[in-house]
Amino acid sequence: MPLTNTSVPTPQNFFVVLYHGHQLLDSAGPLDILSTITKTQQGRNFTLTFLAEDLGAINLAAIPPVDADWDFEESGEMPRDDEGMVGGRGFNPTLNADVSFEDALRELRDTGKVEVNVRGRNSETGRWEVRKESRNVDVLFIPGGIGSRLYRVDNVSGERTLNVKSAIEFVRAVCLEGYVRSAVMTVCTGSDLLAHTGLLDGRRATTNAMAFEKVAKRHEGVKWLEKRRWVRSLPEEVQGKEGGFDGEIWTSAGISAGMDLMLWFVAEVWGGDFARGVGRRLEYEWRENVGEGEVDPYYE
């Protein structure tokens, strides 16, 4: 089952958009599927690149970085702890970006690729060392989470800014300027972030079932499909529209649905039997009975 757009290269380089307050399983589940594939012939050349506003630690809890001159706006979506922090300080996994949005976009505009520091073995000395590697953006992956809809408040001016503003600007630029070669993929309210770019206007998409009404109301130009596990939007849906994104967009419902989305993507590229084998290795029950754009009985 090859990708419908046969001019699209088989994906090798996966880029993940990070921000403070994103949902861990949104990214960890699908990425573990890809990690499993790296142990096979199909995935031996896979690369993974994390992108974020800055290169410091990215908090998965909704906590600003230690040197931030802003705080998260009070939100009724999650309770605050005794110190006033949404989600609490005590349980806060962190990730570090490989490249900032600003640097990645500049390098893409200069060379068409993103330069990343990687570890490799020196063929002469046999020792591990850090070297530069340039990568095309094959798949741009956007997780969801409460951080996708929280606002920041500047500690001095009081100015209110959407937490993912820089991510929205980066995603819009790399898509409209033609740097994404295979597909954009979102999990949960990652489609809310993507919808802010305008790239989903006129396209079918889905999002977290519990946040569906709020997300759909914010972006009325999108053809939101409720109670769907995953949706694959092909370029033909916006054919003839000027200034849009001419690639595939894959969106999924909340959190664990992202693993189904990735397995369907794997099936489309390398075949259903291969995807089933990956699911078995992870002991994951792939919802293969719920096809593209179909109502999922789970949400009933």
From TrEMBL:
Gene3D superfamilies: 3.40.50.880
One Pfam entry name: DJ-1_PfpI
Classification via SUPFAM superfamilies: Class I glutamine amidotransferase-like
Source organism of this protein record: Knufia obscura
Name recorded for this polypeptide: DJ-1/PfpI domain-containing protein
Alphabetized InterPro entries for the sequence: Class_I_gatase-like, DJ-1/PfpI, INH-QAR
DJ-1/PfpI domain ranges (all copies): 134-266
Domain of life: Eukaryota
